[in-house]
Protein: Putative ABC transport system ATP-binding protein
Organism: Rubrimonas cliftonensis
Amino acid sequence: MIVARDLAYAYPRGGFGLRVPALDLAAGEKLAVVGPSGSGKSTLLDLIAGIRRPDGGALLVDGVDVPALSEAGRRAFRAARIGFVFQTFELIDYLSARDNILYPYMISPALRLDAAVRARAGALAQAAGVADKLDRRPGDLSQGERQRVAICRALVAKPRLILADEATGNLDPANKGVVLDLLFAQAADAGAAVLAVTHDHDLLPRFDRVVDFAGFADRSAA
Ligand code: ADP
Ligand code: MG
């Protein structure tokens, strides 16, 4: 699902550079990424999702040379194959929680919104415990509710790869378990792989593998 070699990225402004000699993720595998704050974990997810383009190295995601795609191509690839739970949620303020969950269907011509999709969105919201909040806008939800809406949005289009950036970070212990169960059940159902950045060390035994990101940052890069 992911093959990365000698991946390098430096922010145009600012002294941070990321260097990843090798990172692999098999289809259906569940990988946790841990590491200190500022070590480049979110940057790595941006590279994998094609939000940022690496300066060097090789990156295949689901067999596709993502950095070689145009910006529009990367956007379409992301919408069709990747479910991304952003660390900062990135919900759309003026849309209801329901429409936020359905958002991939509004922006991707490859996805068709029909009654079955609406039912699926409702079922995901139910499983995530936000079914009674679907008419509210993000501003009228708690942090934990926003996070769960963002997770439903990431899962609704049955992505091949789920990228989750501290997706359990704002939740109480009971809801952490619920959300991880939901992520893993959806992944198993769709045969999807999961790459999750997490600080919750008690959740690590539930992953197939753990990569420690300490050491990947190259502070001399920029
Ligand atoms: P992590 O997710 O591991 O906490 P990040 O990938 O968010 O780390 O950030 C890695 C480093 O890159 C940090 O030092 C951060 O300050 C820096 N950084 C993040 N975004 C930008 C940006 N847009 N411009 C410049 N530097 C950035
Ligand atoms: Mg981060």
User: Anything to note?
Assistant: Residues 41-42, 87, 165 surround magnesium ion (ligand 2) (CB under 6 Å). Strands lie at 2-10, 17-25, 30-34, 56-61, 64-65, 82-85, 161-165, 193-197, 209-212.
